[in-house]
Amino acid sequence: MTKPPVTISLCMIVKNEEQTLARCLDSVADLMDEIIIVDTGSTDQTKTIAARYTDRLYTFDWNDDFADARNESFDKATCSYILWLDADDVLLEPDRERLRSLKRHLSMDIDAVVMPLHLAEGEQGEPLFTSRRIRLVKRERQYCWAGRLHEDLVIPEGRIVHSDVAVTHRRMEDHTLRNQRILARWISESGKLEGRLLYFYANECFDRKEYAKAAEAFNRLLGEPSGYREDRITACVRLAECYLHRGEPEQQLDSLLRSFRYDVPQADLCCMIGDWFFTRKEWSTAAYWYEKALEQRGVSGLRAVPLPCYSWLPHVRLSHCCANLGKLDASYEHNQKALQYLPEDPHLLDNERKLRSAIQNLSSSARPLK
Questions:
Q1: Is-contact 64 129, C-beta < 8 A?
Q2: What pLDDT, on the 0 to 100 scale, is given for residue 366?
């Protein structure tokens, strides 16, 4: 029996995205079977640009609720699967090919697909910071969005798979003031500050550099009897950063270790703990935590993490630790492993020369006299 072809509806909500919308659609339009764009009140050329790509253009009366707008866009879809993007997202060419392959081979018994979201890039375009989002869902499952701000797709049940198709986020505008306004209204109408609403409030305080308020909110969140595991891990990370900015190093370390209540040690947490000891020149203890970071094989979960902690950074730190412990061969080995990720890095290349010279000099001085 021939497998029915997978068809995909691209669903987007937009407002005043004239600078980014064409870039986004150019990267994905030819891979879609249907493009649905819901405009939430643009006053620039967004709708004119959108009309060049689709006639499925709709208007939504904005009500400070992103989930409502996204659900409206999903309601318009007619294809077997729905892909969602923001206007400042883009698919790079390798990911276009991966999406093309995914569409060709995706089994119709899959209900949702999780994809990486690259949030920051390095000088060579390499991803530096990434999270994972549920990006593609089967339309007939009628999954819905929840949350006025920082909305999420709610998947109560279903078969979920992970894909290597990455979406690259290239934000051009700062939405901090908008987010603060929506959050303030949400808190006012809710009448209580707890759960995910408390989590969002804590993050907004952190982003405004109000570290005392953020620390208090994160501690309240962690004191609640239940909550999302990954929110709690992120809260521990940000709480540690609050204490760093406040000059409270012992509380900083305690917050990082507190994350182990919610999951096994993850590479970025291990690196942060290693850095705590590294700055105090406690080389053996720092090295222990960087070694633990290397034991973690890839990013797990959906939270945003710094990718260098899962690749080259532990090797760079271990090279320094080993050098300070007099273990020059091990230092050189870790420097070489870091160079596999960053082959043109001038600091690593300089370290390579210095370490090779130091090892040769040590070997020469150790030769017995004739």
A1: no
A2: 55
Please say whether the beta carbons of 35 and 67 come within 8 A: no
Which fold would CATH assign to domain 280-370? 1.25.40
So what's the pLDDT on residue 362? 81
CB 147 within 8 A of CB 66: yes
What is the per-residue pLDDT for 369?
43
Token look-up 């987010």 returns: 179
Instruction: Give CA–CA dist 240/145, Å, rounded.
Output: 31
Residue 172 confidence (pLDDT): 74
Backbone dihedral region of 271: left (phi > 0), alpha (psi from -120 to 50 degrees) or beta? Answer: alpha
Q: What's the distance, CA 93 to chain centroid? A: 20
Task: Count Cβ atoms below 10 Å from residue 58 Cβ, excluding itself.
Answer: 15
> If you count them, how many residues does the chain have?
370
For the chain, give every domain's residue range: 8-169, 174-263, 280-370
Give the separation between CA 73 and CA 67, rounded to whole angstroms: 10
Q: β-strand 127-138 against 81-84: which pairing, if any?
A: antiparallel
Residue pair 133/162 in contact (Cβ under 8 Å)? The answer is no
SS3 for 175? coil
4 neighbors 108 (Cβ within 8 angstroms): yes
Q: Strand (E) positions, 217-368? A: 305-306
109 Cβ contact partners less than 8 Å away, ≥ 6 residues apart: 159
CA atoms within 13 A on the CB side of 58: 20
What CATH number matches the domain at 8-169, 2.40.160.20, 1.10.530.10, 3.90.550.10, 3.30.300.160? 3.90.550.10
In Å, what is the CA distance from 20 to each residue of 36, 39, 90? 16, 14, 9
Point out the residues of the chain with pLDDT beneath 70.
1, 365-370
39: helix, strand or coil: strand
Q: At 269, phi and psi to the nearest 5? A: -65, -40
